[in-house]
Design goal:
The structure is a homodimer. Chain A is of the alpha+beta class. Chain A has 10 helices and 13 strands. In chain A, about 35% of the residues lie in helices and about 25% in strands. In chain A, the strands form 3 sheets. Chain A has a 7-stranded mixed sheet with strand order 8-10-7-11-9-12-13, sandwiched between helices. In chain A, strands 3-6-4-5 form a 4-stranded mixed sheet. In chain A, strand 4, helix 3 and strand 5 form a beta-alpha-beta unit. In chain A, helix 2 runs parallel beside helix 3, helix 4 packs across helix 5 and helix 4 packs across helix 8. Chain A starts with 6 loop residues before the first helix and ends in an 11-residue tail after the last strand. At the A-B interface, helix 1, strand 2, strand 3, helix 2 and strand 4 of A face helix 1, strand 2, strand 3, helix 2 and strand 4 of B. Strand 3 of chain A pairs antiparallel with strand 2 of chain B, so a sheet runs across the interface.
Chain lengths: ~325, ~325
Amino acid sequence: MSRLSSEQAFLDLIAEHFPNAHPNLELGRGDDCALLKCPPRVCLTTDLFLEDRHFRRAYFAPEDVGRKALAVNVSDILGMGARPLGFALNLMAPPDVEREWWSRMFLAMSGLAREYDLPLAGGDLSLDERIGLAVTVWGEPWPGGEFKRRGMAEAGDTLFAVGHLGLARAGLLALEEKGRHAQADFPHAVACHLCPCLSPKASNTLSRLPFVRGLMDVSDGLAQDVPRFVGPRLGAALDLDPAVLHEEVRIAAGAHGQDPALFAALGGEDYALLGALPPDRLAEARDRVPELVPIGTVTPEPGLTLHGAPLGRGFDHFQKD
Amino acid sequence: MSRLSSEQAFLDLIAEHFPNAHPNLELGRGDDCALLKCPPRVCLTTDLFLEDRHFRRAYFAPEDVGRKALAVNVSDILGMGARPLGFALNLMAPPDVEREWWSRMFLAMSGLAREYDLPLAGGDLSLDERIGLAVTVWGEPWPGGEFKRRGMAEAGDTLFAVGHLGLARAGLLALEEKGRHAQADFPHAVACHLCPCLSPKASNTLSRLPFVRGLMDVSDGLAQDVPRFVGPRLGAALDLDPAVLHEEVRIAAGAHGQDPALFAALGGEDYALLGALPPDRLAEARDRVPELVPIGTVTPEPGLTLHGAPLGRGFDHFQKD
């Protein structure tokens, strides 16, 4: 096992995993800036993925770190009804992490990048006490689609979700309790926490349906994200049929003595898609996106309820520690 | 003194300092992504600015941190012969840092943003052990100008610089030795380390001169950056007239028993501009950019010399600690 002792060794490893020429780039890594071949309408997002805040090496394999750091940003692009075009990476690197660790991390990250055909356009590298990644991703509307923003829903609209609500939370709780051994009892939940399942096809299809009034990715749980989605002037009445929840969510909720729907509504890191549409278009949308499930109704007054009972906004990630 | 105990308190403070609507943005903060009004040719850069790696709170005031974190990225844009259009900010925040500190940091950052008319388009916030900023900036060519890349110089070209070489290094050494008291003896050097002096006017003018063959920003010192600028097939013979160096560089070099030119060539964080042009155009360029100084010649063979003696590549930032 060896360490990456120089910046050049790091850059060489990155070059092994990420080609520097790509149709989306006029100029890749190696200058002050990357030059992007930029479509007229671009969306951009950036997120931190920090050791012991967003992941623990105790149960995140290097592959999980590499994939998830990129996936959570891709999820934001999909949540705009857009497709990602490229990314940049800032890397915080402790000196004692083995070359093998980085190599596995980059291999998984480049695998996901290939899946979405994303070039790594540049970034920065710094020594630090802990591993950290700051990823920036940009994208454009899907062909024939349009950006889907928040705050577009109307009172009476049906709220829908695509993806597993609460499953990543079940995975996190199990991983925190038992480490990777949690995989035995909660294989899907653990997989979902370690690497979010994204829905690019649903994002693509929904972005092309003019009656879909807004889309976002649920990253902090429905309790936090639904109010952000409908905006301050509207509210929502959530109705989460336990039958649509993953079996492992129901088991985890039971083990924690919680109602499964409440457990799911408080779950962070789902990276599910959340959207709104007129109720008479639900059937048509489900024809196009069969995994779409209705989860409630937009109400004319602010406030959030779940099965008729008021629902607080859940915890503040910033206050978690 | 109070602390910012919730994510919302942080977002409110950011909203106080950074307007969310801007002609360069179709959509600002508050959705999954920002929507940029994107020109067809865009350059993009991203950098880390981490406590105890890139700055120390012992002698960086909050204002210095806010300005420099943004300035080093703006410098990369200027080094492409481009003007910045907007930025995104990832923030690592220890829970015990006072609201006052953040407020002063944001005030200075927003001051620099206003100078360049840059909207803050989005970002992320995470608790962390130390303060850290990951800034992403994008830009477009100056009106009538063109992107200036590295690797465009030809053998025989004159290398030139705009900005103070070695001055930030003199400042860093003085600050590390005496903290802010260093200001008494090295006012310019200290100021230059705490907040790089950028040259937007020179970047603008040089980008519109077709005979300027490439531009970059010197961030790791000439010894590292000149080989990157000329590329692997060419070399450079540097000739740094001590008379063009700042007086404080000459004093600092003397205090460390070093030749002033060598001291300057090894200086990191200059954020000066480095470029190349045919020697017969030097006078014309100096007419347009009076602060431009010739610093050597591009040679047909690889290798870097200073006043005829071989010059190593200086230290590797990644190995510094």
